[in-house]
């Protein structure tokens, strides 16, 4: 039998050497696992806002005229009843004197002259009626001619008409006196309307008119704000205005005095601002000490009711091409399993997971960056 050549033997040996034992599988990767739990978390969203008076009013004169003086400046604190501005009052003072004189004359007519005339007319009528009754008796007895009875009858008719006229004159005179008194009251009111007094303790927000200008009745001259209470105003989006409710606790940090006030969300506007399209939210603040001033910038934090949520460390959520994902530890197989998730609000160093995680899942929170679905892992 012919022996194989040495070259063939060499090739057979090389082939046997290349089909040695299979490569060992990669060792499990070390990871840190955190059990997923549902937590009741209270959200505290923050808005930037500004301080405004809780109540404002535009003040005006009740009558027209030339402004004589504006006695306050913007930013000045005023007290209830304080005179803030006045018109030139010469014409109104003349009207008051004329109306007073007219009322005095009408009062004299109604209370003295006309009652005296009515008394005289009544006495004359009573006398004439007595004379008429005697004349009628004499005429019946044939002791008085018909002409005499006719004469006294005509006198009685005239005196009755005079008494009726005196009665009517007194009624008219009293009405005239009432009208004259009303005209006097109106003149006094017009004179008082030439001054603007503060309706309450407050602060002057704006001065619109100046001395020497003509002011129409009802035209704003000053803007006054009540300073005992203030608003912290914030602008809310459509979703925020729909999701929030009044009464929520609020902490308001005001940068001017560098202090924090507490209050609650008192109002949520029903109409969006035509420019910003935001809805105004207002937190009422006590300002008895007067430290808050209109226009100050504030930071408003609302405390929302707590609700049960699932939170995961931000670093555990991976932004993969397939979407946001996490890796879970499968204890039965000792492997890492990728799962897609949907996230929501960020809370500190964690993020709310809206879907994809459930309480009891074992979430890989360290070592997940190098994992692929199905890799073997060992929890530390």
Descriptive report:
This protein has 380 residues and is an alpha+beta fold. Among the domains are: 29-37 and 307-379, conserved putative lor/sdh protein from methanococcus maripaludis s2 fold (Beta Barrel), CATH 2.40.420.20; 91-192; 227-302, Elongation Factor Tu (Ef-tu), domain 3 (Beta Barrel). It contains four helices and 22 strands. Helix 2 (90-140) runs antiparallel to helix 3. It is elongated, with a radius of gyration of 50 Å. The chain starts with 5 loop residues before the first helix and ends with a strand.
Structure, briefly:
The chain is of the alpha+beta class. It contains four helices and 22 strands.
């Amino acid at each position: 039998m012919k022996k194989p050549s040495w070259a063939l033997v060499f090739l057979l040996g090389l082939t046997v050497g290349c089909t040695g034992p299979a490569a060992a599988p990669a060792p499990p990767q070390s990871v840190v696992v955190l059990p997923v739990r549902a937590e009741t978390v209270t959200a505290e969203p923050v808005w930037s806002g500004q301080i405004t008076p809780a109540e404002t009013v535009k003040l005006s004169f009740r009558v027209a005229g030339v402004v004589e003086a504006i006695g306050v400046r913007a930013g000045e604190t005023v007290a209830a009843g304080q005179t803030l501005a006045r018109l030139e009052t010469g014409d109104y003072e003349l009207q008051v004197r004329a109306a007073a004189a007219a009322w005095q004359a009408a009062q004299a007519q109604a209370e003295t002259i006309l009652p005296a005339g009515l008394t005289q007319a009544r006495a004359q009528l009573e006398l004439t009626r007595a004379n008429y009754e005697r004349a009628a008796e004499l005429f019946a007895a044939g002791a008085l001619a018909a002409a005499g009875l006719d004469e006294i009858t005509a006198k009685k008719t005239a005196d009755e008409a005079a008494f009726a006229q005196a009665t009517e004159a007194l009624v008219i005179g009293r009405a005239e006196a009432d009208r004259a008194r009303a005209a006097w009251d109106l003149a006094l009111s017009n004179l008082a309307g030439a001054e603007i007094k503060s309706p309450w303790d407050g602060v002057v927000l704006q001065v619109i008119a100046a001395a020497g200008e003509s002011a129409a009745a009802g035209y704003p001259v000053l803007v006054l704000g009540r300073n005992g209470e203030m608003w912290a105003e914030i602008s809310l989006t459509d979703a925020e205005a729909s999701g929030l409710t009044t009464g929520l606790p609020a902490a308001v940090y005001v940068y001017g005095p560098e202090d924090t006030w507490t209050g609650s969300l008192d109002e949520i506007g029903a109409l969006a601002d035509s420019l910003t399209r935001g809805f105004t939210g207002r937190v009422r603040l006590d300002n008895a000490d007067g430290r808050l001033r209109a226009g100050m910038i504030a930071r408003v934090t609302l405390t929302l009711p707590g609700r049960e949520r699932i939170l995961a460390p931000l670093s555990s959520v991976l932004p993969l091409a397939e979407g946001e994902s996490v890796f879970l530890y499968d204890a039965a197989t000792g492997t890492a399993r990728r799962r897609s998730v949907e996230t929501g609000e960020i809370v500190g160093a964690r993020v709310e997971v809206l879907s994809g995680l459930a309480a009891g899942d074992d979430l890989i929170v360290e070592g997940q960056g190098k994992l692929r679905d199905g890799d073997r892992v060992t929890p530390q």
